[in-house]
Fold this sequence. Notes:
This protein has strands spanning 17-21, 25-32, 37-43, 52-54, 58-65, 67-72, 75-80, 84-87, 93-96, 103-110, 117-119. The strands form three sheets. Strands 1-2-3-10-5-8 form a six-stranded antiparallel β-sheet, with no helix packed on it. It contains no helices and eleven strands. It is 0% helix and 52% strand. It has a single domain (22-105), classed as Jelly Rolls (Sandwich).
Amino acid sequence: MPKDAAQPASVSRNNAEHYRWGNDCDGWNLVKDENLSVIEEYIPSGAHEVRHYHQKAQQFFYILSGEVMMEVEGRSALLPAGSGIRVLPGARHQISNPSSGAARFLVISQPPSHGDRIPE
Length: 120
């Protein structure tokens, strides 16, 4: 490693850029650069995202706690903590939380999905 290279900094919800989405949902940009996006999101019981797709970005949703319903191209899957699902570019999808408790999950996008989101 070059002697002038900085040590990588630790990142968490405490120091990451925060944003709000949907109805009372939260997101934290853990990695945000031109090639990769890693976001931790929080979705309360009963909340959902707008059905949409991305032209360029592929995404991987990994459930950290709780459970969510992921609908991709008309097929739904209940995803419990410790599981995930890949969504390819062009696939229409929507995440929701039909359970009685909140859920947290990671959304990993390559390239980043911001600016590439097309609502239905």
